[in-house]
């Protein structure tokens, strides 16, 4: 493959920091580099209480435990999302109530959420798809009105904003991902942000296998033991060292990704004849250059474009299968048709976007997409 879909990269001192972590003689979690990452997030985004985790999936699982989700509780979330958003709550016995996507964006349609709330609703999980904010004022008003918690699945949303506030700082809890496909990477990795102070202490315990070891290391208790349920959610210093190397270069990384995103967008904006559906960024949101996608006319057109790109050595992909139609949840889902979610399942095409992608490569990718779209539409006319 000449141009892969994604390519992990070294932005600066990642490898040096890993070797320093080894030199410090502490490779398990919560050492120097983990603390440096926490400090970074506090200063840069105002995340007063944040905890690195081994993945965003783990951060979501911690959120479900912290909210005390019990069998029978209902949790509202979009159907157009990654499995972990739902799995974390299903593991605790929750019933998932799927919301449809907006017409103009794969994010959940804020205007229908109220109609999904019942006396059993415990939480709303929003997903800032492609790093573009859900309209959080609407969601937080519902949270207040009905006494339900809000969790932000901010896996794709690092350094993106809602009305000037960093995503991940608005809900009661938020989960980030540092998987190698995200803007800031550590291979596997994640973070839980705790904005509701009542969860701070218990979060530390759950993350440390249900023990009060963190408090012990701070000298607050003179022995530690098993005090709650929990699991092993903290990453090693090797992961944190790599992550810190990336965080130091966050400005450069973000500037580069946004440049690539804009470069794609400008090329496609000038294709009036193709009347393309380009990504929509509402006024209250920002783009963090996480993902560039196009909405194809239909499933067949998307398949044709993916094949054409593949023949040119370029790897592009579609994204989620709506979770209500997944093999696992299909039988359990008893709700309405989710027309918009299905729409994005069938039509959304993601193009390569990674730090080392050059302008020439973006041009080549865009040109191949445009040519194959023209070709497909011509063939389609001929066959009619
Ligand atoms: C990537 C992603 C996750 C999972 O992140 P991991 O760190 O791989 O566990 C969850 N939700 C969304 C929306 C994602 O994009």
**Hetero compounds:** pyridoxal-5'-phosphate
Q: What is the C-level CATH assignment of the largest domain? A: Alpha Beta
Helix content: 25-40%
- For this structure, the CATH topology of the largest domain is Aspartate Aminotransferase, domain 2
Radius of gyration: 22 Å
CATH architecture of the largest domain: 3-Layer(aba) Sandwich
Globally, the shape reads: globular
Report mean pLDDT, rounded to a whole number.
96
| Number of helices in the DSSP assignment | 13
How many beta-strand elements? 12
Strand content: 5-15%
* Number of separate domains: 2
CATH evolutionary superfamily of the largest domain: Type I PLP-dependent aspartate aminotransferase-like (Major domain)
Strand order across the largest sheet: 1-9-8-5-4-2-3
Uncertain ranges: none
Distance between the termini: 34 Å
Order of helices and strands: HHEHEHEHEHEEEEEHHHHEHEHEH
Query: How would a crystallographer describe the biggest sheet?
Result: 7 strands, mixed
Task: Please describe what this structure looks like.
- The protein has helices spanning 14-23, 32-45, 56-66, 83-90, 110-116, 136-146, 200-207, 213-217, 237-247, 250-269, 299-311, 339-347, 359-383; strands at 50-53, 74-78, 95-99, 121-127, 149-153, 161-162, 165-166, 173-177, 190-194, 292-295, 317-318, 348-351.
- The longest helix is centred in the last third of the chain and has 25 residues, at 359-383.
- The strands form three sheets. Strands 1-9-8-5-4-2-3 form a seven-stranded mixed sheet, with helices on both faces.
- The chain has 384 residues and is of the alpha/beta class.
- Bound molecules: pyridoxal-5'-phosphate.
- Pyridoxal-5'-phosphate is lined by residues 55-57, 81-82, 84-85, 127, 153, 155-156, 177, 179, 190.
């Amino acid at each position: 493959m000449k141009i892969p879909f994604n390519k992990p990269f070294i932005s600066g001192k990642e490898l040096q920091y890993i070797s320093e972590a080894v030199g410090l003689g502490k490779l398990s979690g919560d050492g120097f580099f983990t603390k440096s990452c926490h400090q970074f997030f506090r200063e840069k985004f105002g995340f007063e209480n944040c905890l690195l985790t081994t993945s965003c999936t783990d951060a979501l699982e911690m959120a479900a435990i912290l909210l005390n989700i019990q069998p029978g509780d209902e949790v509202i979330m979009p159907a157009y999302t990654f499995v972990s958003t739902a799995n974390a709550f299903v593991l605790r016995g929750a019933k998932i109530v799927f919301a449809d996507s907006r017409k103009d964006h794969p994010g959940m349609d804020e205007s229908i959420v109220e109609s999904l709330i019942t006396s059993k609703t415990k939480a709303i999980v929003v997903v800032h798809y492609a790093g573009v904010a859900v309209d959080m004022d609407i969601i937080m008003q519902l949270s207040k009105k009905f006494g339900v918690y809000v969790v932000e699945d901010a896996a794709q949303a690092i350094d993106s904003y809602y009305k000037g506030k960093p995503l991940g700082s608005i809900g009661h809890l938020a989960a980030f991902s540092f998987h190698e496909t995200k803007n800031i990477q550590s291979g596997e990795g994640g973070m839980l942000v705790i904005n509701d102070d009542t969860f701070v202490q218990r979060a530390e315990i759950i993350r440390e296998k249900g023990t009060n070891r963190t408090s012990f290391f701070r000298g607050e208790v003179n022995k530690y033991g098993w005090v709650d349920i929990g699991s092993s959610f903290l990453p090693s210093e090797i992961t944190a060292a790599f992550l810190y190397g990336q965080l130091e270069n966050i400005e450069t990384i973000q500037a580069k990704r946004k440049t690539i995103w804009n470069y794609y967008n400008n090329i496609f904006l000038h294709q009036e004849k193709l009347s393309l559906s380009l990504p929509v960024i509402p006024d209250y949101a920002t783009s963090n250059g996480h993902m560039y996608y196009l909405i194809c006319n239909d499933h067949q057109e998307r398949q044709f474009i993916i094949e054409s790109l593949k023949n040119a050595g370029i790897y592009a992909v579609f994204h989620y299968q709506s979770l209500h139609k997944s093999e696992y949840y299909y039988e359990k889902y008893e709700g309405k048709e989710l027309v918009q979610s299905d729409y994005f399942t069938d039509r959304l095409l993601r193009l390569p976007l990674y730090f080392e992608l050059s302008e020439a490569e973006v041009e080549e990718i865009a040109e191949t997409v445009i040519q194959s779209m023209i070709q497909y539409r011509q063939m389609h006319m001929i066959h009619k």
